[in-house]
Amino acid sequence: MTRLAMFLAVSLALGTPAAAGDWRPLVTPAEAAELMAADAVVIDIRSVKDYAQGHLETAVNVPYHAWRGPEDNPGELIDDAKVTALLQEAGVEPSIPVIVTNDGRDSLDFGSVARVYWTLKSAGVEQVAILNGGLAAWTRDGRALSKAEWSNFPSDFEFALAPDWTIDRAGVERVLDGAEDAILIDARPEDFFTGKIKHELAAWAGTLAGALNLDHDTLFTAPGVLNADPAAIRARAEAAGWTPGRTVVSFCNTGHWAATNWFALSEIAGIENVKLYPESMVGYTRAQRVSAGG
Predict the structure, then answer these.
(1) What pLDDT shows up at residue 11?
(2) pLDDT, tens digit, 9 for 90 and up, residues 112-152
(3) Residues 46-59: pLDDT tens digits?
(4) What pLDDT was estimated at residue 35?
């Protein structure tokens, strides 16, 4: 029996979301345990040191920094060759569900699993889920951790990032110039949005012209636990000035907090045409400085 056939057989028996055709991108510990029993791939994106202290039993370790760009522009996309290498080593195949997890400490921590989720979806993985609340929620639920290193049989699939949920700097500039219509939504706290403070790697403070501010931290019901109610997420977006029917561009400093907003708006609220600007303000301002001869 193939791994996919095994997953489908077990998920049918358990009545998991995959069997019911009702996949949920945000899962509880109980739902994650059912998916693990059905042979889903689990990716723990914490550091090697933290992973060694305890993790979900079948989780492979692919630290978050491996999914990110260079130190001077951490939001920059990794190329298809690196995506393929990471996913092949983790045993990921497009048709096998994947659960992404980390500590679940706070909203900042959630941004990392959201960014990895976005990468996996863009790479063509058909069913991806985040363990809401991470290991903190798992252990609060009375579930055990393992300290044994886990590895999966490598896959041989060649992955490529699709552009469906991405906008690059050229696309952002077209929006700013009025050549394309989109709502720009800044996921950062107010002090970043108003320019009182800036990321240390950004060339200048402030936000993109005409942007709305939807602080990612307002989308959580508890530290590290994202609001799973689509209506509540839509209400928060509407309060920030979002209106239906237009493309949404989510950005922040380095595509981390913005990944949370992208996930909440696209995957939880079901809003169509939500795109992530991966490099965000760090990449944008540094590119502007170079083009200006600075």
Answers:
(1) 45
(2) 999 999 999 999 999 999 999 999 999 999 999 999 999 99
(3) 999 999 999 999 99
(4) 98
Residues of the chain with pLDDT under 50: 1-15, 20, 290-294
pLDDT at position 18 is 52
The model carries a pTM of 0.92
Distance CA 248, CA 242 (A): 9
* Topology adopted by domain 169-291: Oxidized Rhodanese; domain 1 (3.40.250)
What's the CATH number of domain 14-140, 3.30.70.1400, 3.30.70.920, 3.40.250.10, 1.10.260.40?
3.40.250.10
Q: Do the Cβ atoms of 161 and 77 come closer than 8 Å?
A: yes
